[in-house]
Write a structure and sequence with these properties.
241 residues; alpha+beta; 25% helix; 23% strand; globular; disordered C terminus; binds coenzyme A
């Protein structure tokens, strides 16, 4: 069974053995497979200036093996959008304690596109929403490739573009702000068939966490997720005009 663990500076020592494989996996996936050569380092680790003590990681661990991950960086600290891609956000710069920037979401190749259980990428998205609701966040800023937008819309994430997509190194990339709220978390849980919180907070008893809303009883047949009549990607429809 895959578990999603919250890892921060407060419990990092419990996960020390995972960090070297984690940064190696990132190198394998982003440098070797995706060819994001700007991230290359001779030591075979993909670590950047945003992997600081303030970064929070979600590690997806299955039977002791790291099979996926995601990084969340407080926007009050330097982050990808503020330092590398500020031109993608034509609105007010985002520097707020209630917004974290998400980056480096990945699933190891052999666990992608699974259909037998909840998909790992969906587990990670559900888990980060749970993290946000639990810690009182209102949103997540993300610099992402445009192909994420229909995926987000399909699973009911409310992503607000902060500017128009731009071509960067052959990729169509844009900045978005995604709402973090209880209704989205509840809906994501329903979509992946979870009737209890997803996250493991080992060694983080001291973190002040809000109570999560009750999840629906899954023994009652669930209604399929229905797209709202109007796009939740506010403003995307105007990009082409
Ligand atoms: N370009 C365009 N579309 C992509 C894509 C890419 N680089 N990677 C994934 N997709 C889209 C496609 O629509 C794909 O459908 P396809 O099977 O018809 O190609 C769909 O996502 C499913 O992706 P898949 O990789 O099969 O599985 P997944 O949904 O379980 O995992 C990721 C998605 C992104 C987590 C996984 O592909 C991954 O780890 N990729 C490498 C890391 C990465 O690029 N992360 C995003 C930037 S931080």
């Amino acid at each position: 069974m895959s578990e999603i663990h919250v890892v921060s500076k407060d419990n990092r020592q419990l996960y020390q053995s995972y960090f070297d494989p984690y940064f190696r996996l990132r190198h394998e996936i982003y440098v070797k497979q995706r060819k994001w050569m700007a991230l290359d380092r001779p030591d075979g680790l993909e670590i950047d200036q945003f992997d600081t003590d303030e970064a929070v990681y979600l590690f997806c661990i299955d039977d002791g093996r790291l099979i996926g991950g995601m990084r969340a960086v407080p926007t009050v600290m330097p982050n990808l959008m503020s330092e590398i891609f500020p031109y993608l956000n034509i609105r007010e710069p985002i520097q707020r304690p209630d917004v974290y920037e998400l980056s480096r979401i990945f699933v190891i190749p052999e666990r992608r596109g699974e259909h037998a259980g909840p998909r790992i990428d969906m587990l990670l998205l559900t888990a980060i929403m749970e993290y946000g609701v639990s810690t009182g966040l209102s949103g997540f800023s993300i610099v992402l490739e445009s192909w994420w937008l229909p995926r987000f819309e399909r699973c009911g994430l409310k992503a607000h573009p902060l500017g128009l997509p731009q071509m960067i190194d052959g990729m169509s990339v844009l900045a978005v702000l995604v709402d973090c709220d209880e209704a989205t978390w509840t809906s994501l849980c329903g979509q992946i068939g979870m009737n209890k919180p997803t996250l493991t907070w080992r060694g983080l008893a001291g973190v002040n966490r809000r109570a999560l809303p009750a999840l629906p009883d899954l023994s009652i047949p669930a209604q399929p997720f229905v797209q709202p009549a109007q796009s939740t990607l506010h403003g995307v429809g105007h990009c082409a005009t």
